[in-house]
Specification:
Helix content is 22%, strand content 41%. The chain has 160 residues and is of the alpha+beta class. A hairpin with a 5-residue loop joins β2 and β3. The longest helix has 13 residues.
Length: 160
């Protein structure tokens, strides 16, 4: 029998009789791959004590689809509107610990002229990167966010 040890609007954390924690995500999330022509927008995001280069992402709101949530996150974090959206596939954070519902969502945008950063959520700046530069950043260890790496893999697989 699992005992709830923490709960908020996004997660329930339980501890079972063997001492194992389990995290249940309530609404899911979207990792957004903002696409401008043949390039992609990444953000530098303050997460705790480090700054990560990543695709925008966030939790879904209750009843929201991954596509709608991805478009909303794109608007919130960068003030951009997507003109086309495609769910690329599902992602699992850590299947042994977390039961989640996350998808990578590619959103096509027409340009970068309207970008306004969501500083209140830790978004520091943004970069427009063509795929070769993105791959160099992965190789150099500049991109280590698991959501971004997994979403990038789905993007590469879709285009292979």
């Amino acid at each position: 029998m699992a005992k709830t040890v923490h709960e908020n609007q996004y997660f329930t954390v339980t501890l079972n009789d063997k001492g194992y924690l389990r995290i249940y995500q309530k609404t899911g999330g979207a990792v957004v791959i903002p696409t401008v022509g043949d390039s992609y927008i990444l953000i530098e995001h303050q997460r705790g004590d480090e700054v990560l280069l990543e695709f925008p992402r966030g939790f879904l709101e209750q009843g929201e689809s991954h596509a709608v949530g991805g478009l909303r996150e794109l608007k919130e974090e960068l003030n951009l509107d997507g003109v086309a959206v495609q769910v690329m596939g599902e992602l699992r954070t850590d299947s042994g610990l977390i039961q989640d519902n996350i998808a990578a969502v590619q959103c096509t945008v027409t340009g970068t002229h309207g970008i306004t950063l969501q500083h209140s959520e830790g978004v520091l700046t943004w970069r427009l990167m063509p795929l070769p530069a993105l791959m160099r950043a992965v190789k150099a260890g500049e991109i280590k966010d698991n959501f971004t790496l997994a979403a990038l893999m789905l993007l590469l697989a879709q285009n292979a």
